[in-house]
Design a protein that fits this description.
Layout (H helix, E strand, L loop, with lengths): L2 E6 L7 H16 L3 E6 L5 H12 L5 H25 L4 E4 L6 E3 L8 E4 L2 H8 L3 E5 L2 E3 L5 E3 L5 H11 L4 E6 L20 E2 L1 H9 L7 H10 L3 E5 L7 E3 L14 H4 L14 E5 L2 E10 L4 H11 L7 E4 L7 E9 H13 L1 H4 L3 E5 L2 E7 L9 H11 L6 E5 L2 E7 L3 H11 L18
Parallel strand pairs: 1-2, 1-9, 2-6, 3-6, 9-11, 10-12
Antiparallel strand pairs: 4-5, 7-8, 11-12, 13-18, 14-16, 14-17, 15-16, 18-20, 19-20
The structure holds aspartic acid and magnesium ion.
The site of aspartic acid has 13 residues, from loops.
Length: 438
């Protein structure tokens, strides 16, 4: 018997038929003898619709009220799914984030989990119930409802799995798992059978939309094995784990996941996949005095407005090292306020021009094998040059190389690099069942 946390995304519970299908899967898992905790997202596009409704009323919705509103989407799902499971003859009880003991800080709209006291959940499953928890929400020290940021139900699920010491956290979505690239762009993308948490973290941090970044961080920190799979099929999905799965899960997991990942190292490809990101913008500050403290001051101003910087590149002309150009990328939603803040400090910073380019795309090639294999960048740049695609910025980590291109070149870039690294499947195997990737 295992303790399994199952998380169902919005497209898996989009209507009554989908809800019934999920209820059946939950019941099947329970009847197979496992303890089951379910985390649900809001049905279909509910969260977007709630946001639109609020926006039609005001463009200054108080953040506290916004969180109460958005948390309602997940509450509808949890109550309906609980009814559907009870209808199939298995006792289930629904809990809000607060009732499930998910304590957060009070940053409305992007709250961080600060404590987990899932006593009622533990008691419910001990009593043979299925516990159904509303995703994406918690409660602050002031007893206010908070939400964890878009896509946050993944984090609810992994945090619960960690706190309850679950054997596995299953993330149900509308695709069959993690792919070597987004199948919507690369139809020949292959499903990954297994991938390390470290690589998944890089994927999620660099645009792959399959998992909430903080969920992967939690999974890694607490060693929770994740299984990302489709709720629309019985197919095996992708196992995300740095250690072999619990032997109790035999029959529930593929032999590949039970095997020691070290054993398969020989077969490991150098790169695991390609992530892409269209949501970043680029700002260049030209001719800023190249003196100690200049960059510190510049980025202190950027930090003050709460912008989350990704890449930073500084250029100092060899012939005139007295001034520098500093380029950085940031989420598109942060660009306007950053430009305004920098403009307001123009004199103090002493720069010449602020250049802004929203039409950029980022491709990231990710693979733990890069550590020990030379020539990866040469192959990447070669593939892009053959496709006639110009590289704007480059950044690397131990297991990732990212390049920025023109936005309109991004899809072609991803396709070219996918082929160059031998990732193409001979036959298309990616099936997209829903539409949202959630
Ligand atoms: N319903 C929320 C959203 O759409 C949370 C989630 O689905 O994970 O972002
Ligand atoms: Mg999601």
């Amino acid at each position: 018997m295992a303790l399994i946390v199952q998380k169902y995304g919005g497209s898996s519970v989009s209507d009554v038929a989908a809800m019934k299908r999920v209820a059946q899967r939950v019941v099947d898992t329970h009847r197979a003898g496992h303890k089951v905790v379910v985390v649900v997202s809001a049905m279909g596009d509910t969260t977007d619709e709630l946001l639109d409704t609020a926006a039609a009323l005001t463009d200054q919705a108080p953040v506290r009220e916004m969180d109460i509103l958005l948390s309602a989407g997940e509450r509808i799902s949890m109550a309906l799914l609980s009814m559907a499971v009870n209808e199939l003859g298995v006792p289930a009880t629904a809990y809000t984030g607060a009732q499930a003991g998910i304590r957060t800080d009070s940053h409305h709209g992007r709250a961080q989990i600060v404590g987990m006291v899932p006593e009622r959940i533990a008691r419910a499953i001990h009593d043979g119930q299925v516990a159904i928890v509303a995703g994406f929400q918690g409660i602050s020290d002031d007893d206010d409802v908070t939400t964890l940021g878009r896509g946050g139900s993944d984090t609810t699920a992994v945090a619960l799995a960690a706190a309850l010491n679950a054997d596995v956290c299953e993330i149900y979505t509308d695709v069959d798992g993690l792919f070597t690239a987004d199948p919507r762009i690369v139809p020949t993308a292959k499903r990954l059978r297994t991938i390390s948490q470290e690589e998944t973290l890089e994927m999620a941090a660099h645009g792959a939309k399959i998992l909430h970044l903080r969920a992967v961080e939690f999974a890694r920190r607490y060693g929770v094995p994740l299984h990302v799979r489709s709720s629309f099929s019985e197919k095996e999905g992708t196992w995300i784990s740095d250690s072999p799965a619990h032997p109790d899960l035999k029959g529930l997991v593929p032999d590949a996941a039970l095997a020691d990942p070290q054993e398969n190292l020989m077969e490991q490809p150098i790169v695991s996949g390609i992530a892409h990101d269209r949501s970043q913008d680029k700002i260049t500050v030209t001719n800023i005095p190249n003196t100690p403290g200049c960059a510190a001051r510049l980025f202190a101003i950027v930090a003050e407005v709460g912008a989350n910087i990704d890449m930073i590149v500084q250029n100092v002309p060899v012939l005139d090292p007295s001034h520098a150009n500093i380029t950085f990328t940031l989420p598109e939603g942060d660009a306007q306020k950053t430009l305004e803040a920098l403009e307001a400090h123009r004199e103090e910073l002493g720069f010449n021009e602020l250049r802004y380019n929203p039409n950029i795309g980022k491709l990231s090639l990710i693979g733990a094998g890069m550590r020990t294999n030379p020539g990866v960048s040469a192959r990447l740049f070669g593939a892009l040059s053959q496709a006639g695609i110009n590289i704007d910025l480059i950044s690397t980590s131990e297991i990732r190389i990212s390049v920025v291109t023109k936005l309109e070149d991004l899809d072609r870039a991803v396709q070219a690099v996918h082929t160059a690294f031998g990732l193409d499947a001979t036959e298309s195997e990616a099936v997209v069942y829903g539409g949202t990737g959630r």
